[in-house]
UniProtKB/TrEMBL annotation:
Entry protein name: 3-carboxy-cis,cis-muconate cycloisomerase
Domain Adenylosuccinate lyase C-terminal: from-to ranges: 389-461
Species of origin: Leucobacter soli
InterPro entries for the chain: AdenyloSucc_lyase_C, Fumarate_lyase_CS, Fumarate_lyase_N
Record key words, sorted: Isomerase
């Protein structure tokens, strides 16, 4: 299929076609969005049309030769090679002709009928309406791209689980509301990231498994199919159609009931959000004054040669900021579908869902690279852990010493240490602790106050091992 560069394009003042979007303003998606190009969607449209003819043939309504002729012209073989008909189909022309009818199916049907053998022409688009084909193609398109996102999420989860196991007991400062709180471990932080990714992968997998075909005719009644083949064959047709395409069998028409789109949008937004949460931590912890983590290959600056920016995290965060609004647009559109077939609300879904898929592909691809190359500066971790002079275990001090010397006295000691006094010296000099046998050095050791961090890490790593 030529004119792949027609994706998101228009005519220039000189009349030559120029490409609107190749990722110049969306660097997070560059190199990761091949699965959501206009050309790929056009192929999905043709697959949807071909499968309908094949379904008619499987029910012995259409001649088998019609399905064979269509497939030989516009089929995709096991190696992914396109039939000769694709080479004759002009994508740029399809784009231009889509405007007149408001969707690409109308002109595509004419192109397909002109390309297939004569005996197959009447079975191209037989009984279907444009939305049947476009919705089905959208599900095919989303499923294939979604599986690519899902593969990245599995890769990310595995890398984070390995990182968590490696750093299971490496004590670090936990931060709440931006400030040092209590000790934690690097392993637990990564395990928590992994749990978010794992949950997102589960939701995405569920959403992809439920994506259905659309095949209900002009008003959602399948009347055209009944007229062509009778009620029994018409009732069986969507099931056969779904089996051919590997999509779910629909409960009925979903022309204006858009849960397949909104639930997929939610799953994609959740996945991007889980990745954005990792990126936010990495960006923060790689700040010069913190320096606990670093990306495997940081970016530079056009003006400051010393800089090593966490570019991967920055790009992933850009996707995480945009994704929820795209998912919200899908919900807004779903709430504005009317009658038995929609008007502009349907049209608003297409590019919105495609952009959400595109961002998910980009965020997941970049995140896979980010987590696989993540580096720890153990010296910085130790330095930051010691910054408060032992106050990072103030909660422990309060729990252990409060019953002995009183909460008020503990608060006074902590306050003095906060003003610069030596916490260990204050505690050793405290009269109320004489003869208690409390080991002050042990009490102030952050590694002794990580609770069940190791156990929580083990739960995550053991769960992954059990799944293998």
């Amino acid at each position: 299929m030529h004119s792949d560069a027609a994706q998101d394009s228009r005519d220039s003042p000189e009349g030559s076609r120029i490409v609107i979007d190749t990722g110049l303003l969306s660097p997070v998606t560059v190199g990761h969005d091949h699965a959501v190009s206009d050309a790929v969607f056009a192929i999905a449209l043709i697959r949807a049309e071909l499968a309908l003819t094949q379904a008619w043939a499987e029910l012995d309504i259409a001649p088998e030769a019609a399905a064979i002729g269509f497939e030989q012209t516009f089929g995709v073989d096991a190696a992914g090679a396109l039939g000769a008909g694709f080479e004759r189909l002009d994508l740029a022309e399809l784009v231009e002709r889509s405007v007149a009818g408001g969707n690409p199916v109308i002109p595509l049907v004419g192109m397909l009928r002109a390309g297939v053998p004569e005996g197959a022409r009447e079975w191209v688009h037989r009984g279907a309406t444009s939305q049947d084909i476009l919705d089905t193609a959208l599900m095919l398109f989303a499923r294939d791209a979604g599986f690519e996102v899902l593969a990245h999420l599995v890769e990310i989860d595995e890398a984070l689980t390995a990182f968590a196991a490696e750093h299971r007991d490496q004590t670090a400062a936990a931060r709440t509301l931006t400030q040092h709180a209590v000790p934690t471990t690097l392993g637990l932080r990564a395990a928590n990231w992994a749990q978010g990714v794992d949950r997102a992968a589960l939701k995405l997998d569920e959403a992809l498994a439920q994506l259905p075909v659309q095949l209900a005719g002009a008003g959602g009644t399948l009347a055209s199919f009944v007229q062509i083949s009778g009620a029994a064959s018409a009732e069986a047709l969507p099931d056969v159609y779904a089996e051919i395409l590997g999509l779910a069998i629909p409960d009925g028409a979903w022309h204006t009931v858009r849960w397949p789109v909104t639930e997929l949008g939610e799953a994609l937004a959740q996945a991007i959000g889980a990745l954005g949460r990792i990126a936010a931590d990495v960006a923060t912890l790689s700040r010069t004054e913190i320096g606990e983590l670093a990306e495997g290959s940081g970016g530079g600056s056009s003006a400051m040669p010393q800089k090593r920016n966490p570019v991967g995290s920055v790009l992933i965060r850009s996707a995480a900021i945009r994704a929820p609004h795209l998912a919200a647009t899908l919900h807004a559109a779903a709430g504005l579908f009317v009658d038995e077939r929609p008007d502009g609300a349907w049209h608003a879904e297409w590019q919105t869902l495609r952009e959400l898929l595109r961002l998910a592909l980009g965020a997941a691809g970049n995140a896979a690279e980010l987590v696989s190359g993540l580096r720890v500066d153990s010296d910085a971790v130790e330095r930051n852990l010691a910054l408060t002079g032992g106050l990072i275990v103030a909660e422990r001090i309060s729990l252990v010493l409060g019953p002995i010397i009183g909460a008020e006295r503990v608060a006074e000691i902590v306050a003095a240490a906060g003003r610069g006094a030596d916490l260990a010296a204050l505690l050793r000099a405290e009269p109320g602790l004489e003869g208690t046998g409390i080991d002050i050095a042990d009490l102030l050791d952050p590694a002794g106050y990580t609770g069940l961090a190791g156990v929580l890490v083990d739960r995550v790593t053991n769960a992954r091992e059990a799944d293998e």
